[in-house]
Amino acid sequence: MTETVTRTHRDGKQQIADSSTVEDVFDDTYKEKDGPKPPTALVWRNIVLMSVLHAAALYGLVLLPSASVPTLAWTAVCYIISALGVTAGAHRLWSHRSYKAAFPLRVFLALANSMAFQNDIYEWARDHRVHHKYSETDADPHNATRGFFFAHVGWLMVRKHPDVIEKGKKLELSDLKADKVVMFQRKHYKVSVVILCFLLPTFVPWYFWGESLTVGYFVPGLLRYAVMLNATWLVNSAAHLWGNRPYDKTINPRENRLVALSAIGEGFHNYHHTFPFDYATSEFGCKLNITTAFIDTMCFFGLAKDTKKVSKEIIAARIQRTGDSSNKSG
């Protein structure tokens, strides 16, 4: 079932959306404060941890040729599961409420999100709503106007701009607080991350087909985790800097097929920021979009419903009105 209702977008025109979902709508009334920016405060703990992780991932890359075929297949499975925890879970379900999920599916997505280890669902969704509401301003957690590195990973290595914290506290997050799955995951997040992001990927290949613990830890464990992190970060960096803007040339996000491929469907970013409530985050359905195919499959089995989709007429009108006249990326 596809739900269609209206909302007013930043240019005053009506779009398709859930009228109750207002926390991801761009707020053009926000103005950055005059005067010098606050000093940058480095978070050395995160800098060290990110450096160690990527060094370990490089070692995992060295070990990759020695991994067995079942281990490589398991690595791919862990990658897809953890990616879905972010894309179908924290992003499309909990941040944008673009579809509804039954309890078993919400549990699976929460577990998958812990395997992804990118902050718990509550914090991820809160920051993402702030990103949409104040995109490319001081209140945007990963403001791409500060450059590729900042938007990619630098934002995690410094203290948040005070406006990010202030605006995040003012968001309406009652839907997240009311979701028992979200709050249970938040309460037990650290334990779930240790088990699902590190122990499970390591011990499954060791126990079931005799893979060495070293390969299990560094390949489906740390290498998979680091690649998944960077694929997600590319949505914030590359997809805000490189690509075309067929839907809205007035905003920074772009259509980037390579990012869509690595982030299992999240690279159609000009479309997504134009229509953030669309469950497919793309005009083109399942094309280069494993996440959309997954949600459609869950709908078929009755585990998901009420997917929100923009009509072709609305899309065509928006392209005509605000697009950059480029070829669409689908």
Automatic annotation (TrEMBL):
It catalyses: octadecanoyl-CoA + 2 Fe(II)-[cytochrome b5] + O2 + 2 H(+) = (9Z)-octadecenoyl-CoA + 2 Fe(III)-[cytochrome b5] + 2 H2O. It is an enzyme of class 1 (oxidoreductase). GO terms for cellular component: endoplasmic reticulum membrane. GO terms for molecular function: iron ion binding; palmitoyl-CoA 9-desaturase activity; stearoyl-CoA 9-desaturase activity. Keywords: Endoplasmic reticulum, Fatty acid biosynthesis, Fatty acid metabolism, Iron, Lipid biosynthesis, Lipid metabolism, Membrane, Metal-binding, Oxidoreductase, Transmembrane, Transmembrane helix. Its cofactor is Fe(2+). InterPro entries: Acyl-CoA_DS, FA_desaturase_dom, FADS-1_CS. Belongs to the fatty acid desaturase type 1 family. This is stearoyl-CoA 9-desaturase. It comes from Gasterosteus aculeatus aculeatus (three-spined stickleback).
